[in-house]
Design goal:
Blueprint (H helix, E strand, L loop, with lengths): L20 H13 L8 H8 L8 H36 L1
Helix pairs in contact: 1-3, 2-3
Length: 94
């Protein structure tokens, strides 16, 4: 039985970013507990995170801040999309 060779990733292939579960868990908890402290600005979020979390390494801190920033961007985009479609969707459903 011939073995199948792994195909190398090309530049055009889309591969999602993998984040460790602890980064996601901490980030979600921070956004839930302190929604007003964080926004879409990475640098501002980095300063806001400093007193809240004792990250052992710079890399871990940056990953948490990056995911928090991403969560806030997605949250804002969803709110904008909902507000644009809100009245029209509710009228169609009735």
């Amino acid at each position: 039985m011939p073995t199948r060779a792994a195909t190398p990733l090309r530049k055009d292939d889309r591969v999602g970013k993998v984040r460790i579960a602890s980064v996601k868990k901490i980030s979600r908890k921070l956004v839930a507990l302190y929604p007003d402290r964080f926004g879409k600005d990475y640098e501002a979020n980095k300063k806001a995170l400093e007193p809240l979390v004792d990250a052992r390494t710079k890399r871990l801190r940056n990953r948490i801040v990056g995911y928090v920033t991403r969560l806030k961007i997605v949250e804002e985009n969803r709110a904008a999309a909902t507000s644009e479609l809100g009245p029209e969707v509710s009228e169609d459903q009735e």
